[in-house]
Design brief:
alpha/beta, Oxidized Rhodanese, domain 1, four-stranded parallel β-sheet, 4 helices, about 35% helix
Length: about 100
């Protein structure tokens, strides 16, 4: 499933309880992440599924959307409700949403 940057921003302000994971590499997240996001690089995701709550949706984001789509597929296969942000951080920052 997909979610737009605007829908993601609305999730953040509504406090609906979605988990946001940034699946980029460490060097990429050093430039900033969505406030409240957790960094779990795509290559580490399979070993860190226990760090996530299956009762809450997971929104995966990366630089442009390719890795987050792979993460969402992996999460869905593991029984999570997962979303991806097509356009990723490129679209998030282009829309003027905050990074920390």
């Amino acid at each position: 499933m997909e979610i737009t940057p605007a829908q993601l921003a609305e999730q953040l302000t509504s406090g609906r309880g979605a988990q946001i994971i940034d699946v980029r590499e460490s060097a990429e997240v050093a430039g900033g992440m969505i406030p409240g996001a957790r960094h779990i690089a795509l290559g580490e995701l399979g070993g860190r599924l226990d760090d996530l709550d299956k009762a809450r949706p997971v929104i995966a984001i990366c630089r442009s959307g390719r890795r987050s789509a792979a993460a969402a597929d992996q999460l869905t296969a593991a029984g999570f409700t997962a979303y991806t942000v097509p356009g990723g951080m490129l679209d998030w920052t282009a829309a003027g949403f905050p990074v920390s």
